[in-house]
Amino acid sequence: MNYVIRDAREEDMTQVLGLIQELAIFEKEPDAVEITVEELIREGFGDHPLFHCFVAEVKDEIVGIALVYYRFSTWQGRSVHLEDLIVKESMRGTGLGSALYKEVLKYAQSKGVRRVEWVVLDWNTAAIDFYEKSGAKLLKDWYLVQMDQDGVNKFVSKS
User: Fold this and answer.
1) Residue 143 is a catalytic residue
2) C-alpha torsion 108→112→115→120, nearest 10
3) Closest Cα partner for 41 from 65, 69, 12?
4) Where along the sequence do coiled-coil regions lie (predicted)?
5) Containing structural domain, residue 74
6) Do 56 and 87 meet the contact criterion of CB atoms below 8 Å apart?
7) Which of 35, 71, 116, 134 is 20 to 30 A from 80 in CA distance terms?
8) What is the pTM of this model?
């Protein structure tokens, strides 16, 4: 299969959002995506982009993405967080995900970070197996903690 992995451009964001929505369906959260194409463009491009996105393209169609951004660890310093690696369902098993993953790791290496990190759902055994075989460590003694906007508002408004 011939594919190209490249940096995303503003005009790619409609297709990127389509893959994000496909991921939400795969993760059993079909109504969870609130972000818009306009937000992706505003936050990912310009003077101070909040993320970097790679796209995998086959015949002018974006069939995979990897979206990353910097985090800061008090122990390790700057790290790269892989927010999502998405491959269109029809392209899974072709090596495209592995190529995107390698591109992320090469990006992190070029930036001189000491760590790359991401989260994976506990039921996504194919991804877990792939990551473990690649040498990544699953930290099973840590919990992912999140608070949505409503929770923040409720907590902050408490007297």
Assistant:
1) no
2) -10
3) 12
4) none
5) 4-157
6) yes
7) 35
8) 0.94
- What is the chain's pLDDT, residue by residue, as a tens digit (159 residues)? 799 999 999 999 999 999 999 999 999 999 999 999 999 999 999 999 999 999 999 999 999 999 999 999 999 999 999 999 999 999 999 999 999 999 999 999 999 999 999 999 999 999 999 999 999 999 999 999 999 999 999 999 996
- Tokens 């451009």 correspond to 9
Tell me the two tokens of residue 112.
């001189």
* Cα distances (Å, whole numbers) of residue 31 to 20, 34, 85: 11, 8, 19
Instruction: Say how many domains are in the chain.
Output: 1
CATH code (residue 8): 3.40.630.30
Catalytic residue among 69, 70, 107, 131: 131
Amino acid at residue number 120: V
